[in-house]
From TrEMBL:
Residues 193-290 form the Pirin C-terminal domain. The keyword Nucleotide-binding does not apply. Keywords: Iron, Metal-binding. CDD domains: cupin_pirin_C. This is Pirin. Fe cation binds at H78, H80, H122, E124. One of its GO terms (molecular function) is metal ion binding. It comes from the Bacteria.
């Protein structure tokens, strides 16, 4: 998914200098962003106070939206580099096309994982016809320097491993949780898991104390380490945890995101993750004037133009503002 904000701002993040080394409970509120003509998203990362959680660098939550009489998601072809995109649905479908030739309909609790590597372009749209409701999250993972120029590729996994406990089903999206490992390719130690909690559940989820974590609330009413989290909000948890207390007042859906703190400082602008001002400016120019990012075939419409890069130099400074 693209960052369609026409006033794209520079995000500077990464490095361990601002990692919270002990458990915390930092509730992050979303920023509302219009995505295309009919979809509004709640942007949790990058946030005013926190830029990354492990290698997770971008989190949008959207829906549930009634799109029965609407076109639904309509994101024209746009470029990416230096990152992976994770498409995750609770309701609805998204049709993915990209410049490697991939064409895939992604359905609820199936993993759509696109590794941009050196350069890729893709589009995302609600199929025609489509389901009445659309509800999901779009996430980006920053690639480390050693792997950020890999060949672009797309993975789709309809079946993912699960961890179960009374009242809890955890689907492992990326990485590993409690001995269950996702088939999705990762390039840094991280975890992403979808947590479905039944009403009245009280449980504890095992964690890696070397990881930093956050929990995104998707639906329902849940308490995470005693903190109520409402749908569309995210609780940052810091590092140093061996387990996470969860309690559900109703049926609830959460996403657990975590990983080793990302050591490298990065520059994130529009749909690019790079390391320098020159690299970002060159990528923007190449999207507008060359074929570096390839062609998305089969999409009915024009591709997105890139916004203007700020006049001031883009610099990587750290994980928090």
């Amino acid at each position: 998914m693209s960052n369609l904000d026409r006033q794209a701002t520079v995000t500077v993040c990464g490095g361990r200098g601002f990692v919270v080394a002990e458990p915390v409970r930092e509730l992050l509120s979303p920023r509302h962003v219009q995505l295309g003509e009919s979809t509004e998203v709640r942007r949790l990362l990058p946030n005013l106070g926190r830029r990354m959680v492990g290698a997770w660098a971008f989190v949008d939550h959207y829906g549930p939206d009634d799109i029965a009489d609407e076109p639904g998601m309509q994101v024209p072809p746009h470029p990416h580099m230096g990152l992976q995109t994770v498409s995750w649905l609770h309701e609805g479908e998204v049709l993915h096309r990209d410049s490697t030739g991939s064409l895939q309909t992604i359905r609820p609790r199936e993993l759509g994982l696109m590794t941009s590597g050196r350069a890729i372009s893709h589009s995302e749209e609600s199929p025609r016809p489509h389901a009445r409701l659309l509800h999901g999250a779009q996430l980006w993972v920053a690639l480390p320097d050693a792997h950020r120029h890999v060949e672009p590729h797309f993975q789709h996994h309809a079946e993912l491993p699960r961890v179960t406990a009374p009242g809890l089903t955890a689907t492992v999206i990326l990485g590993a949780l409690d001995g269950a490992a996702s088939p999705g390719t990762t390039y840094t130690p991280l975890v992403g898991a979808d947590l479905a909690l039944a009403a009245g559940t009280e449980t504890r989820l095992p964690l890696d104390p070397d990881f930093e974590y956050a929990v995104l609330a998707m639906s329902g009413e849940a308490h995470v380490d005693g903190v109520p989290v409402l749908p569309g909000s995210m609780l940052y948890l810091g590092c140093g945890r061996t387990e996470l207390p969860l309690r559900a007042a109703s049926d609830a859906g959460l996403m657990l995101l975590g990983g080793e703190p990302f050591e490298e400082e990065i520059v994130m602008w529009w749909n690019f993750v790079g390391r320098t001002d020159e690299e970002i400016r060159a990528a923007r120019e190449q999207w507008m004037t060359s074929d570096r990012f390839g062609e998305v075939k089969g999409y009915d419409g024009d591709r997105l133009d890139a916004p203007e890069v700020p006049a001031t130099p883009l610099k990587a400074r750290g994980r928090v503002r």
